Amino acid sequence: MFEGLNTPRLVLDADRVERNAARMRVRCGELGVTLRPHVKTAKSTDVARIAADGEQGPITVSTLAEAEHFAAAGWRDILYTTAIAPAKLARADRIQREHGARLLFVLDDREAAAMIGKEAAALGACFGILIEVDCGEHRSGVEPESEELLAIADTIGACAPHLELMGVMSHAGHSYAFDDRAAIAALAEVERHAAVASAELLRSRGYPCPIVSVGSTPTALFADHLSGVTEVRAGIYLFWDLAQLSRGICAQDDLAVSVLATVIGHQRHGPSLILDAGALALSKDVGANRFMPEAGYGLVCDADTLAPYGTLAVTVVHQEHGNVPVPDESWFARLPIGSVVRILPNHACLTCAAYVSYDVLRAGEAVGQWPRTGGW
Amino acid sequence: MFEGLNTPRLVLDADRVERNAARMRVRCGELGVTLRPHVKTAKSTDVARIAADGEQGPITVSTLAEAEHFAAAGWRDILYTTAIAPAKLARADRIQREHGARLLFVLDDREAAAMIGKEAAALGACFGILIEVDCGEHRSGVEPESEELLAIADTIGACAPHLELMGVMSHAGHSYAFDDRAAIAALAEVERHAAVASAELLRSRGYPCPIVSVGSTPTALFADHLSGVTEVRAGIYLFWDLAQLSRGICAQDDLAVSVLATVIGHQRHGPSLILDAGALALSKDVGANRFMPEAGYGLVCDADTLAPYGTLAVTVVHQEHGNVPVPDESWFARLPIGSVVRILPNHACLTCAAYVSYDVLRAGEAVGQWPRTGGW
Predict the structure, then answer these.
(1) Among A245, A352, B143, B304, which residue carries the largest CB count within 10 Å?
(2) How far apart are the C-alpha atoms of B10 and A138, rounded to whole Å?
(3) Do B336 and A111 touch (CB under 8 A)?
(4) Residue A208 lies in a domain
């Protein structure tokens, strides 16, 4: 099916994406929360539509480039979860005005809140704000239920109408460090409680906090309940990857993206296959290898069926070369120079970022291309 | 100088590039070889012109996208050093015909040579070929002076006029594993000898081999001599990076590219600064850390002077967040939220690949943007 194509290229199984998307929608329905898909993995309006069953509902973005791309395509409710800097507000203001979108920012610092408020006032803009609370990852966020939380809320309140406190968010990014469902469920409860208790405290001070946002794909899947939460952010569930598979969070036939590569050499030292997919085509992320050391930079699969060739993996990457050790030279006849394989990526978010489009499969047949956005 | 700009962005000091370029031109002049710059690092016609002192001389590329980009911009002598696959020939043929460029391919397999010859004949095309010899890295290439080398040459010869054997190439990629000049000089001699002896053998069988191509920046710099070699391929010398600095191959004020990032948070756990430059803005390559463990994903520097803040480095990356541990919270006042820093990348080739353009500095002042190409 893939003969004659320029490689490397990114292949997306749209049927798998639809199945993955439907499962998370059902799950969020059971939890009684709104799903706000994170589009930093897919960076695709086509995929975001599948996530929301054809709608243009709330989304989460990681860059203003994504915010701009999705706002231009009609999305209206956009949460940007990388803390905003004052110099970025003018562009954010243009995105809101030109496209009629509403941007929500996260903040975790009272001085930053004051700067953002001042800049928003200078622009004559109005932005919604969620205060980020740290539920233990210590990447960003303030202590839940803390004095600093209240100080930030008061600073935001003083910047009305240019800033509007819409609620709180937390992110249990450290849930990706576990492969144990009970441990993930426990973190989900910490994440939930940090957000809900902080929202309750703010409400007791007169801030309504209509949004209580939590998320990470693992905690969304394994939380015992999300009482008090209003929305869940998750992204990788749409595609999955070896990092998630290695943690037992998805099944192998859920994996929806792969890299099509060509065998360009047979190295008798090793022996190994040389592919035209290296560090740029796959990324150098090896996060899956903690629980799946054999993942390398990606598992090598039959191009048509996406069935792995045992544990064949790309174990060494140069900029454009990927090296795949094979048990013996019989593999040279099995995969001659010029033949194609597909590679299941270690970490889909980073692998996909190298590509400007997907080759889309439906019922196993290539049906066209979907564009991706990128950059900042 | 950088206030108010959207970040992250890629900054290029053109004065440093000119100095780096001039030094390698002088070096190749002393060695008596042609310099064929590898443009996979810069992916920029502006930088390639600096490399050749304003000319459009021979270049090396790693993708057909680069070949297409440079051919369209007027380059005529293009060596593509990733082994070619049959399915890519039609595009290569278009690049030659539409732009009047001459593409040189590398091959290291007789069956591949036969397939390439057959496809070239079907296209009515003519391509120059270098046979790749393996000088010890075992990434690709045949044994120097081997029967397989001769068999490939004969296969190429039988495909005339569609394939034309132009010579041999070798690449001591394993030279990047050393920080010892004597060890690199020894590898340079192995690389040189592998190429020259193989060319001599081919000449003894009637193949003229006008091109004997070697390269890697370290071996080009530290070879005792390159007798018998006709050209050197090198790329990273134009920019340098921490991986090269860590091996003592360049000086810190040679480093020509950096990532401009904004402080978007202060994390009291740590304590640490949070930057808006993470895994996508910096890449996850940590090749420098073997000899410079403190390099992390990049060293954090004063935005105006590019002087490092001691050993401050990005030590943890998420997709769009970079975490920079600081000794104490006094750094929060020194680098408040909204301030900018520049980051010296661990491995420039991979970091630059995330960007579509450079912000160019001359005499320390921003003077405009230069586009980059990318993808495949």
Answers:
(1) A352
(2) 28
(3) yes
(4) yes
Amino acid at A289: N
Residue A364: inside a domain, yes or no?
yes
Contacts of B321 in chain A (CB under 8 A): 82, 139-140
Residue pairs spanning A and B at CB distance below 8 A: 160
Q: What is the pLDDT of residue B352?
A: 98
- State which amino acid sits at residue B133: V
| CATH number, position B289 | 2.40.37.20
User: Other CB atoms closer than 10 Å to residue A57's CB: what's the count?
Assistant: 17
Last residue of a domain, one of A179, A207, A238: A238
Give ∠ CA B195-B199-B201 in degrees, rounded to 5: 120
A199 and A74 fall within a common domain = yes
Tokens of B105: 């391919």
Contact B212, B168 (CB under 8 A): yes
Give the model's pLDDT for residue A311: 93
Q: For residue A286, list chain B residues with Cβ-Cβ distance below 8 A.
A: 284
B168/B49 same-domain check: yes
In A, which residues are within 8 Å of B119 by CB distance?
A: none
| pLDDT value of residue A3 | 80
Q: Return the residue of B nearest to A3 by Cα.
A: B87
Give the distance, in angstroms, between the CA of residue B53 and the centroid of all CA atoms in the same chain: 18
Final residue of a structural domain among A177, A207, A238: A238
Place of tokens 């002088």: B26
- Are B93 and B210 found together in one domain? yes
Tell me the residue range of the domain where B357 lies: 249-371
φ, ψ for residue B155, nearest 5 deg: -65, -45
> What φ, ψ does residue A290 adopt, rounded to 5°?
-60, -45
Q: Which residues of chain A have pLDDT under 50?
A: none
**Residue given tokens 């240019």 in the structure block:** A162
Contact A13, A21 (CB under 8 A): no
| Segments in chain B below pLDDT 70 | none
Q: Give the closest of A139, A276, A338 to B86, CB-based.
A: A338
